[in-house]
Amino acid sequence: MSDKVRVFWFRRDMRFEDNVGLYHALSGEFPVLPLFIFDKHILDELPKNDARVTFIHDELQKMRSYLQEHHDSSIATYHDTPENAIKQLIEDFEVEAIYTNRDYEPYAQKRDAEINALLAENGIEFHDFKDQVIFEKTEVEKNDGGMYLVFTPYMKQWKKEFEDINFKINPSEDLLNNTYKNTRLPNFSLSDMGFEKSSIKVPDHNFDKDLLRDYDDTRNIPSIEGTSRLSPYLRFGTIGYRKIVKKALSVENKAFLDELIWREFYKAILYHYPETQDRAFKPKYDRIEWRNNEEEFEKWKTGQTGYPIVDAGMRQLNKTGWMHNRLRMVVGSFLCKHLLIDWRWGEAYFAKKLLDYEMSSNVGGWQWVAGSGVDAAPYFRVFNPYSQTDRFDKDKKFIKKWVPEFESDEYPEPMVEHKMARERCLETYKDAVKN
Questions:
Q1: 300-357 pLDDT, tens per residue?
Q2: What is the CATH number of domain 275-433?
Q3: Distance between start and end Cα atoms, the chain
């Protein structure tokens, strides 16, 4: 049994800089034992070469090395269920309290409630903090109370509320000397956990002022580097969210800031309506008679639909673990509207593939293209892949990069005719929602 410690549990906040929960943990009288749990509830569902596991593991080793070199400390890592890992931790150490930052997804809320109960049974406090958003839960509401269900009024209220907050940075990196002094805390390699190093690398991010200033003009063109590539770093919290918001505020063009607000909007929706992770926000849309043809789904997944812009997007996803945001809308609409395949099939496939997968944004985006979510647009919005190509990849640069056989005899014919598919979709949706 060691001397009494506080524990800071890293989850979606894998950094030392401006980390709210870590700052509060380090500000106390007890040394802080850093903790990370490779959660078997999550990892057991993933392929053994999952790129996200490689990314997390690599980032964690960098953090461990930094603490070992500069502060005679480290990070205790466990490969187990959170319940078992915490039980082992409080058996091995005299834990005064566990500190962490809040997560808003349904699984995370259930997990934290169970851990809180477990700690209470052992007389240990559990403290959680807001870190990955500016506003959470009920902090942006209508004047008469209740959640905004349309983005634009939510965004306007978000900006209004933002004017009144104290935009505080938490210098947690300055307090790291208060970490627990032990460089040989438990650690797991990828192979220890049954994983192997992925060949997919998370690309470097870019959010300099030039990109942010031109973001509204460049973000829809998939053939250029017009997006920040920040999303995986945001997802795992390797960069502080407040730093990103502060940078977004430093330019006159607020398009990038609006995208960050979309992220918070979808988090709030999922928090208030957790059932929407697998049910339509508008219940009548669960009556849609999906065709769910598995052979057609396979063609969509592998980028063999005969629609070049759709195929290019899917091949980019399969090869790199990332897809341009404009194309996420195009391929999603194609799956739901052209093929009449349930949006949940597409959401689950993206969950397996996307380096930046966040349930709230992914579910929100898929329900948006399916027409079943909070978006006010009517169900008869059907993206035309040809007009989308003309608008956003007119010279076919992106298509030719990812579909080299395009315009050759090797490229398949369109698996469905656009006009027919659109009419079939509208009729099917109309039948589902008419009552």
A1: 999 999 999 999 999 999 999 999 999 999 999 999 999 999 999 999 999 999 999 9
A2: 1.10.579.10
A3: 65
Cα distance between residue 384 and residue 323, in whole Å: 18
**CA 268 remoteness from chain centre:** 14
Relative to beta strand 94-101, strand 76-80 is unpaired
d(CA 51, CA 44): 14
Closest by alpha carbon to 182, among 58, 408, 3? 3
The torsion of the CA quartet 121, 105, 349, 12, rounded to 10 degrees, works out to -80
User: In this structure, are residues 103 and 109 in contact, taking their beta carbons and an 8 Å threshold?
Assistant: yes
- Token pair, residue 389, equals 């190509």
Q: Which helix (H) or strand (E) holds 95?
A: strand 94-101
pTM greater than 0.90: yes
347, 366 in Cβ contact below 8 A?
yes
CATH class of the domain comprising 1-130? alpha beta
Only one residue has tokens 């959470």, namely 136
Q: How many CA atoms lie within 13 A of 430 on its CB side?
A: 7
Is residue 1 within 8 A of residue 94, CB to CB? The reply is: yes
Any idea which fold 132-167+206-272 has?
Answer: 1.25.40
Q: Are 236 and 56 in contact (CB under 8 A)?
A: yes
The span from the CA of 35 to the CA of 7, in Å, is 7
Helices marked H in 354-417 — which ranges? 359-370, 385-392, 397-402
- Residue 229 CA to residue 253 CA, distance in Å, equals 18
Q: In what order do the strands lie in the sheet with 125-129?
A: 76-80, 32-39, 4-10, 94-101, 125-129
DSSP 220: T
